[in-house]
Amino acid sequence: MSATFNDEEIHQIERLIRISKEKPLLPENFVPWSAPEEPHHTFLPEHLVSLHGMPIYDTLSDEQKRELARLEVVQSMYAYCWSEGLFCIFMNRYIQDRKPDDLERRFLIREIIEECRHMDMFASAIEKLGRKPILMNRLQRLFGNWTARFLPYDFLFVSCIAIEIMADRYGEHLRHADGSYPVLQKVAQLHNIEEARHILFTRAVLKKYTQKAGPLRATWYSLIILTNICFFQNAYVHSEIYRKVGIQNPKKVRQEAFSHYQKKFAADCLDTLKDFIESFNGFNVITKPLWRKVMKLDI
Ligand SMILES: [Fe+2]
Ligand SMILES: [Fe+2]
């Protein structure tokens, strides 16, 4: 697969490469790593905390709520970090045999550099928050590695854009939250800025595929996006986190929390993704019921 770009897209991708080279955002300088954590700092806007809005949330002490937000933001950064590692495997596979001056190769080299910096930045932020994430299980690792190595390129770009758009919306909430811990606020800001450039590129690459996608291909793309989001949500809402916070019957709470969280997530973080899916007619008789049932999306 090789994308064909029009003059305007070539001009835009060249501009994105230039920005990446001339104005790099280095986490080492951009993030105020030495900023102390103050008691009034928040880690997640409350509406993104999985249990917020459920009766059980009101029974938690302030310390438990704070710990829950801390653990969930650690978990989400770990999940992004892990999926970015997979993107790098895929992008390296995609550019491996291209000429040095190939436009896509030149952009993706910049993206790989930025993703490596993001992974390092997320790992430092996790360390700063002083908690260990719950690692992906064997099945999740097998699934992730298999897809990055063997799935067709257009399917993988669709997966990339799904996570990028979702991360972008999630990061926007984090970035603009009042009283956010400055380290997290700047981490979110940096990620937001650079992912916006990646999304522009991925949209241009995918245009060729999404524009002429027939009903079958549109269905596949839609299902791939749905699987990716569901995968991510499963990695993020965790009974082990509830146990650590001191919640009774964590597994039972998780069952209820998951669909509750999905409803909030669909309303808060999936609006741009919904537009993207609509752009290639990805909501049809097969996928619409699934998006409604599995993802609680209001369509
Ligand atoms: Fe990233
Ligand atoms: Fe990215």
Give an overview in words.
There is one protein chain. By secondary structure, the chain is an all-alpha fold. It has helices spanning 7-22, 27-30, 55-59, 62-95, 103-129, 138-150, 153-176, 182-211, 215-236, 239-245, 250-269, 271-279, 287-295. The chain is 74% helix and 0% strand. The model has no long low-confidence stretch (mean pLDDT 94).
Q: What would you call the quaternary organization?
A: single chain
How many helices? The count is: 13
Report the structural category.
mainly alpha
Low-confidence stretches: none
Domain module count:
1
CATH homology group: Ribonucleotide Reductase, subunit A
Q: Briefly, what CATH class?
A: Mainly Alpha
Helical amount among residues, as a percent range? over 70%
Mean of pLDDT: 94
Second CATH tier, the architecture: Orthogonal Bundle
For the largest beta-sheet, the strand count, sense and barrel status come to: none
Question: What is the H/E string?
Answer: HHHHHHHHHHHHH
Strand content: under 5%
Radius of gyration: 19 Å
Distinct small-molecule ligands in the complex: fe (ii) ion
| First and last CA, distance | 33 Å
CATH topology: Ribonucleotide Reductase, subunit A
